[in-house]
Each structure stands twice: as C-alpha cells, then as structure tokens.
Design goal:
303 residues
Length: 303
C-alpha cells in the first residue's frame, strides 16, 4: 500500500497553516477563555439550560466567515457551490492534520467546528431536495441564514429509526406531526428541525419513514429542556411535537412520503456544525432515487 500523500497536499497543508497563523490564531488569542482550563465554564450559558453562550457561537461564526472568505470552509464541496472539489482523501488528511495541531479555534473536536466544513446537509439537499428546496436551502445553509437540527432519536428507541413512534398524518394540504425527539442536536439556534416520522408501513420497517423540514417556531413545536452532558455546553434538546402542522412542501424531496429509506449509521465528524452519516435502501424498496429520505446525523452541526 502506498502511504505517500498526493503531490498537491503538502503544499495545500502549508497554505492552510499560513492562513491559520495569520487569521485564526490572533483571533483565538483574544478569546483564550474558550480554549484554556476555563473553556467549559466560558462556553456554557448555565442560566439558560446549559446551551452554548451566544458570544462563543459568534466567535465560531467569525472563524467560519474568515475561512470562507479565504476559500477553506467549502473546500470539500463541488465548485458549483463555491467549493474546491476536495476529495475524500483530501478531507481525511486535512482532518488529521488539523486535529494534530491540538485544540484551537481552527479545529475543535469537542465542538465539532473547523475551518474546513463537511456540509452533509448541503450534499443531502443537492441529492434529494426538490428544485425549490435546493434554491431555498443550499446557499442559506452555507451562509448560516438557515440552519437545520436533526430530529431522529427518540426516548424509547434511541437512533433506531425503524421503530420510531413519531407519526405524520396527511390532513388536507399538509401533514400533522405528533411525537417526541431526544438529543435533538442544535435545536437551540436552528431555524428548522429535520423531523423523521412514520407516514406508512409497520413498526420495525424502513419503509414508510419520511423526513419533514419543520420550522422551529411552528405552533406545537416545543423544547421543554436540554440534556446535560459530560462536556458542556449542551445543544441536545428534548423536542415535543403536538399537532404540529406543516405544508406538503415541508416533505424533504419529491414524493418522500413514499420513502423506502432506512438509516444505516451515524458518525460524528469535525465539521463546524453537524455529524455525517449515511443511509441505505430497504431491500424491499422499488422507489426511484428521487423519493428517498436522507439520514445523516446531527444536521445542526454542519454548515
């Protein structure tokens, strides 16, 4: 096996280090309370359910703004989205390189933030969204004007999507959703929650699970509390949906209510916001590729 790096990568990493030294390290030095022994206390709004302090997240937003302006944030995305068509190998080497540099504003494994983003939401929307959804969402996700939390896990079944108990029932020109989600990451700031609900089929089957883009200010959508974790702050909300009504176009993708997709895996990545994962089709599926529900984890963290 050849472990040599492709010839373009050493120079690329050197350019990245120069950007970090010039643009990110000085910014980090002005806010060391977020990176030294004080970091857990400094990052956490203890009087507001333990969610991240807005000042901390504003700093991360500024890091991403600088990285985007310098051409690093979207590196792994296709050029049509302002990216540089970075390969999976590129991204793996970059991730290892940034992590090896240690904790810092350039890359924070605890917070899953990085100057080079993964953007699974953008890829998901590009592959599975309708034309209108792509227009509304892709650039908005990249700039942060829209954000998406991830509503899959539930109190009784964890992340086993095939047994989820949240339901969505067709009603007139829309859907009515009822259920509870747990560890609903990023919901404290998200404009929308990607809520997985059963629309047909039987419990235990991948067939009949649909994803809905639910605005977090929709009546009946509430976050009663956040689950505290060993590493604070937390953005893992408990979400209750009581007669939450959404229009037909809230369904992710064309004909997604006829989804035949099931979740396969869920893995965290250093992305700046979300965790990426993958989905697989049910063996019984005959649905065309235009109708799936994508399942990746914690969309809220990846921007």
């Amino acid at each position: 096996m050849d472990f040599a790096l492709p010839e373009h990568l050493p120079g690329l990493l050197a350019e990245m280090d120069a950007f970090i030294d010039a643009e990110i390290k000085p910014l980090e030095a002005e806010h060391m309370q977020y990176f030294d022994r004080r970091r857990e206390y400094a990052r956490t709004d203890w009087e507001n359910d333990g969610i991240p302090r807005r000042e901390w997240e504003d700093l991360l937003d500024e890091m991403r703004r600088r990285a985007d302006a310098a051409g690093w944030l979207r590196y792994g995305l296709p050029s049509r989205f302002g990216g540089r068509d970075g390969t999976n190998l590129d991204m793996a080497v970059i991730r290892e390189h940034l992590a090896h540099k240690g904790l810092g504003l350039h890359n924070d494994l605890q917070d899953e933030s990085s100057i080079v983003g993964n953007f699974p939401q953008v890829i998901m929307m590009d592959r599975f969204g309708t034309d209108e959804q792509k227009q509304d969402w892709i650039e908005a996700l990249l700039t942060g004007t829209r954000s998406m939390a991830f509503g899959l896990s539930e109190p009784g079944h964890g992340s086993d999507a095939t047994w989820l108990e949240t339901t969505a029932v067709a009603d007139g020109d829309g859907w009515v959703i009822n259920g509870t989600k747990r560890w609903n990451t990023g919901v404290h700031r998200a404009t929308h929650d990607l809520v997985f609900a059963r629309t047909s089929g039987e419990a235990g089957q991948a067939r009949g699970i649909t994803a809905f883009l639910v605005p977090t200010d929709t009546p009946g959508f509430t976050v009663p509390f956040y689950w505290w974790t060993f590493n604070m702050p937390t953005d893992h909300g408990e979400v209750e949906l009581k007669d939450v009504r959404v229009p037909t176009d809230a369904v992710l993708g064309v004909g997604a209510a006829d989804s035949r997709w099931g979740k396969r895996s869920c893995t965290r990545t250093g992305s700046g916001r979300p965790r990426a994962a993958s989905v697989q089709r049910s063996s019984a599926s005959t649905a065309p590729r235009s109708t799936p529900v994508s399942g990746w984890c914690s969309a809220s963290r990846c921007r």
